[in-house]
Design brief:
Helix 4 (75-82) packs across helix 5, helix 7 (153-162) crosses helix 15 and helix 9 crosses helix 14 (351-361). A hairpin with a 2-residue loop joins strand 6 and strand 7. It contains 18 helices and 15 strands. With 510 residues, it is α/β, with parallel strands linked by helices. It is globular and about 70 Å long. The strands form four sheets. An eight-stranded mixed β-sheet has the order 4-11-10-9-8-5-6-7, sandwiched between helices. A three-stranded antiparallel β-sheet has the order 12-15-14. It has a two-stranded antiparallel ribbon with strand order 1-2.
Length: 510
């Protein structure tokens, strides 16, 4: 069966499920007088499929043209206006309802919902769209599986037995516990002049950028990249410069192009790159080092490395700081391995950057909780916790391997990669997301991850580079072309062959 036909049938069946509150029935029976809005922009649509209609209305809800509380025209009125069947419009309304953008209030009509993500930065908001809707399976968030996080109770209990209260005797004490710093240095991929701890990897990145970047600065970012990186660059008045990546991370030619463009800072994720899972090898580290050292501006640039997945990665923690110690800031997060609510990441690098970072924090939070630092130290030294993290690492690797194998068997060429995220090429981002929503599955749209929004272009899956049946994509293939969705495996605990098949169907939907 043609995937687009299957999509329409799935949506139709779900819409007309007997005994379930039925959006089509509620809306199509509403009198025309109830409509308080005419959507003239719909007459300009070239794509009058359920997906096209839903995308057009959804864009105007997100940008505020259709405000919360607006009553939409009836299905019949819109169908007449567009000269399509009522079933086509009902399919679009259903998709918008599944995305949390509209709701039916029975005979009162269908209304635009208030978006409870307005407080988020723009690209974060794109990722959170539809979060208010309960999904059977949420693969959109990038968070670790709570079942695979180590238990922190024993660490807190041991801390409680050793101290009766706060462990801080002065507001001007060293921000890092000496024993924790010693433990961090022993595992660091290079030899930094200074190490401190902050409240998560993004906090560390924000504070480093505050020191290095100003209005008009140019910041090189991998394309695609973690969307909040782009929000941060926007807030600082800087300009993002896309850096091409492949299966081994940022490419030497991409780094050279960023230097040619006048970048002051580079943000790189050496392993488990978000969203692609790309991971640098020692050879790639050497090649990038050579590209930087041979460039006339190479000695002026600062590289920020975000090791956001940390110990759940199977590959070694590598750093350009091994070769460029005075130019590299390395950030190591413990959120994925030991728990997001610990809110701890370590930041190491040259003294000229770390000391101003620490000084600036003294005018804000001062330091990261020494109680939480102590708990992290307990976890890092505890043999049972080490075994637990190792088991989680193997579990995540198995999930990726099984889903990747199924995708490849269905002709969807995606990088095997590392970490919690998979970057899946699709024919149409919107069609893929609508298809998955009809199955009760939520994923992240690919477009917010790109520096230019180029991911919104439809590209037939068959036109992508073919794989060899094992790695699916050659490690040297650029990963930024065409539309994608990002799938996070944190909540994918079983039935990987079924999930992989559904994801493959979504990838081919149009």
């Amino acid at each position: 069966m043609n995937i687009s036909v299957a999509l329409r049938r799935v949506t139709f069946r779900k819409t007309f499920n007997p005994g379930v509150l039925n959006l089509f029935d509620l809306v199509i029976q509403a009198p025309r007088a109830w409509a308080s809005l005419t959507m003239d922009f719909l007459t300009e649509l070239h794509d009058v499929s359920p997906t096209g209609i839903a995308a057009a209305v959804g864009r105007r809800i997100r940008n505020g043209e259709l405000a919360a509380g607006t009553r939409l025209p009836t299905v019949r009125d819109v169908a007449t206006q567009l000269r399509v069947s009522p079933g086509t419009v009902a399919g679009a309304w259903h998709a918008l309802s599944e995305s949390g953008l509209i709701t039916s209030r029975g005979r009162a009509g269908t209304f635009v919902l208030e978006q409870n993500t307005s407080w988020l930065p723009p690209r974060y908001r794109d990722l959170a769209d539809g979060a208010q809707v309960p999904y059977r399976l949420d693969l959109s968030s990038g968070t670790p599986d709570p079942h695979l996080l180590p238990t922190v109770g024993p660490a807190f209990a041991r801390l409680g037995r050793r101290t009766s209260g706060a462990v801080t005797s002065s507001y001007l004490g060293q921000p890092v516990l000496p024993l924790l710093e010693k433990r961090l240095r022993a595992a660091w991929p290079s030899t930094p002049e200074e190490i401190t701890v902050v409240d998560g990897a993004l906090d560390g990145l924000t504070r480093v950028l505050d020191i290095l970047v100003g209005v008009g600065s140019r910041v090189g970012v991998e394309n695609p990249c973690f969307p909040p990186f782009l929000d941060l660059i926007d807030v600082l008045g800087a300009q993002p410069v896309p850096v091409t990546i492949d299966g081994h991370g940022a490419t030497p030619t991409g780094i050279t192009a960023a230097l040619d463009a006048g970048c002051d800072v580079l943000i790189l994720q050496p392993r488990a790159q978000n969203p692609t899972g790309a991971t640098m090898t020692a050879e790639r580290i050497r090649d990038i080092t050579q590209a930087i050292m041979s460039h006339p501006r190479g000695r002026d640039i600062v590289i920020i490395e975000d090791d956001h997945c940390g110990a759940i990665c199977s590959t070694a923690d590598l750093s350009l700081g091994t070769h460029l110690p005075h130019q590299v800031i390395h950030i190591h997060s413990y959120s994925k391995s030991h728990g997001p609510d610990l809110r701890i990441a370590a930041v190491g690098g040259p003294r000229r950057i770390i000391q101003p970072l620490v000084a600036r924090r003294m005018l804000g939070p001062g330091w990261t909780s020494r109680i939480l630092q102590t708990v992290l130290l307990e976890l890092l030294n505890d043999r049972a916790t080490q075994d637990h993290v190792a088991a989680a690492r193997a579990n995540y690797a198995r999930r990726r391997r099984e889903i990747h194998k199924t995708l490849t068997s269905h002709g969807v060429n995606t990088l095997h990669g590392e970490g919690l995220n998979m970057w899946i090429p699709v024919t149409s981002e919107r069609a893929a997301m609508v298809f998955l929503a009809a199955q009760g599955i939520r994923v992240a749209p690919g477009d917010p991850f790109t520096t230019s929004g180029s991911g919104s272009t439809s590209t037939p899956i068959g036109s992508r580079p073919a794989g060899d049946g094992h790695t699916a994509l050659d490690s040297r293939t650029a990963l930024d072309a065409g539309p994608h969705i990002r799938v996070s495996i944190g909540n994918a605990r079983d039935n990987f062959d079924v999930l992989g098949t559904v994801l493959a169907q979504a990838a081919h939907a149009s």
